[in-house]
Amino acid sequence: MYRQHRILLLAAPALLGLVTPGACRHDPTPSVEGVRVDHGFVRSLQHDHLRFAAALASDEWITFEDYQAATLAFIGCASSRGATLRSEPELSKRLRYFYALETPPGRDLKAEVLACRKQYLDPVEFVWARYKPVTAQEVADAEELMTKCLQSASSTSDWQNVPPKPSENKRRECARSVFDRTGLPDYYVWE
């Protein structure tokens, strides 16, 4: 989402010296295989001059380590253009990074940040998103968790309905709780 003077972007080894893998807040990463890509995908990256992503995919796999390297390279590129990392990147249970970048007041860095994203992160993140796709059951479970949490804020005795307008703080608290339990990006709360 873009706002005036601030850019918030989702989203996760080598990093232009600005952020290191140790700077990311997360639990120890579980061992994962990755997502297989074909040689045609690698050739298309090379054809589009996306050398960084092409190098990561050269073994025809996109692994968590590749995704992490692409995320950190993007953050480093955006930072070198003037954007500032608002907080440490946070790794969800679904092995996706979430973070916020800000831009200085009076500077429109949208084009520059998007160019960094295209060069480093987009092609890798596009593939990595297939690693653990969200199922309909996971969405339903998360919605149920959110409803139950919001119901606890209700002052009605029947607890059958979510209060018409739960406070923003309660919504954020419930969304953060659901994100922590599920890792689903729709429930991520920027702190």
What does this entry look like structurally?
With 191 residues, the protein is α+β, with helices and mostly antiparallel strands. The chain is built from six helices and eight strands. Strands 1-2-8-5 form a four-stranded antiparallel β-sheet, with helices on one face. A two-stranded antiparallel sheet has the order 3-4. The chain has a two-stranded antiparallel ribbon with strand order 6-7. Helix 3 packs antiparallel against helix 4 and helix 5 runs antiparallel to helix 6 (168-182). It is flat, with a radius of gyration of 19 Å. It starts with a strand and ends in a 9-residue tail after the last helix. The model is unreliable at 1-30 (pLDDT under 50).
Detail the topology: elements first, then pairings.
Blueprint: E1 2-3, E2 6-7, E3 35-36, H1 39-47, H2 51-56, E4 61-62, H3 64-80, E5 84-85, E6 90-91, E7 97-98, E8 101-102, H4 110-128, H5 136-151, H6 168-182
Antiparallel strand pairs: 1-2, 2-8, 3-4, 5-8, 6-7
